[in-house]
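Lab notebook page, bench 4
Experiment: in silico fold of construct C2
Operator: M.H.
Input chain length: 352 residues
Purpose: comparison with the prior construct
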Amino acid sequence: MTSTADTATGPAAAGPVAGADAVGAAGPDSGRSGRSGRTGRPGRLGRPGPGRRRPVTASRAPLVLLAPAAVILLALVVYPLVRLVVISFQEYGLRAIFTGQAGFAGVTNYTNVLTDASFWPVILRTIVVTAAMVIGTLLIGMAVSQLLTRLGVVMRTVVSVVLVLAWAMPNVASSLVWQWLFQPFYGVLNWVVTQMRVFGDHTQDNWASHPAQAYTIVLTLVIWQAVPFVALTLYAAQSQIAPEYYEAGSLDGATTWAMYRAITLPALAPTLLLVTILSVIWDFNVFNQIWLLTRGGPEDATLTLGIWTFVKSFVSNAYGQGAAIAVISTVILGVLSSYYIRRLVRSGEEDL
């Protein structure tokens, strides 16, 4: 006859041992198989375990995808820039073009450019013209963007299509059209002004022969070509602003200008910075419009760095000095755009 203690301790003592044997036989993770339906620890889908390395092909995939773009950049940007710097330190003229041999000039080209009487006036003129183009483009672009938000669907579509067509027009073709509009004797604008019979007979007026008028036709052409990009970009950013902000402002009694200043402008600040830097880069390098309309005249009134580089290189055949001017222009552009580059690098580091 067994005692109560034996009855209690016998099965109890054997239970854990049997349970341990069962667990050991089935494996340490068999208790989880009832929930997961799998034996073993489920790993993260698509990721190797902590003890395994990522496949070599997966780690090289980004390099393979970036290789074509890198080759194109090396061929179209890096190599020409390196070649430009090399030519700026050489005695590169007509003889070098035919013989393929150019002597080393050191810093003579840079010295000649920096000591040229036209250097500082050209630098100042380029900065002023670029600032006028950028300011005019931004102001008109912001106004057109605000207009697009107030138009109906049909009119907004029509205005957007017109902006895209104006932006897509090649600058050489638009410059020739502009030249025809302001042409003396048979120019459309001169004919219209003469037909108004208010300002007298302007049929023979040559706009490119007066500095103020020459700047007028150049600035209006460049701004007309640049406004579509700025307007459409700002409109895309402005359409992402939540309408609840404007509803709250209207409930508080804020005017349209106050809401634009307190709500729209802060929201557009990153996009405005982007289009400003891009406008500075594009307007600083304007060449076709100025050359086709005024050729840097009258009396070098519209002679900018881009025009001066072309004149030194292909008119005076001083390719070394032209290359030196181009290098100086690149450095100035790098300084002007360094602020945006720093902002871009900081934003990239914050996203990591």
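Observations: The longest helix spans residues 56-88. The first strand starts at residue 90 and ends at 91.
Next step: discuss at group meeting.
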